[in-house]
Give the backbone structure.
Amino acid sequence: MVAPVRFGTDGIRGRAYEEITVDLAYRLGRGVASVFSVPVFVGYDTRESSPQLAAAVLAGLRDGGAVSVNLGYFTTPGVAVIAQQRGGAGVVVSASHNPYYDNGLKVLGLGGTKLDHATEDAVTLSLNGAGPAPAPSFDEPAVDESAEHDYADHLRSLVRATSRRCTL
């Protein structure tokens, strides 16, 4: 039996490979796929465990029938912007400011927004209802290189907008 998982303030965090396991990441992907009917954009940080956990999320999304897009190494705000620009949801594999040996799984709602309680509950219910993941093989999913350019364009537009408002 798999222990039930609960979301914290911003996702699920814990020790990589102990609390945040490949199985959990896969089941989260399946849970997100069961709740959202939009593309799901997945990005991750540079922690050693992040690429494998992201591959598990992507496999769960795929096996759950979702359209998933691997953004590769990407910031949390960047995943939110891409989800907003492209009309999807997001998953970020990152423990943010926590120690290097931790990791986390953060789900972003439609348009890259923070999950509302009802959607978080639906993902949690689906995640906890799924049994342990089968032993999937995690292919190295191709990275959507265009997302990096789109996010950089977004950041440049913010700088241009700010510089027009500033006068010295």
Remarks:
- The first helix runs from residue 22 to 35.
- The radius of gyration is 16 Å.
- Strands lie at 12-15, 40-44, 68-73, 89-93, 102-108.
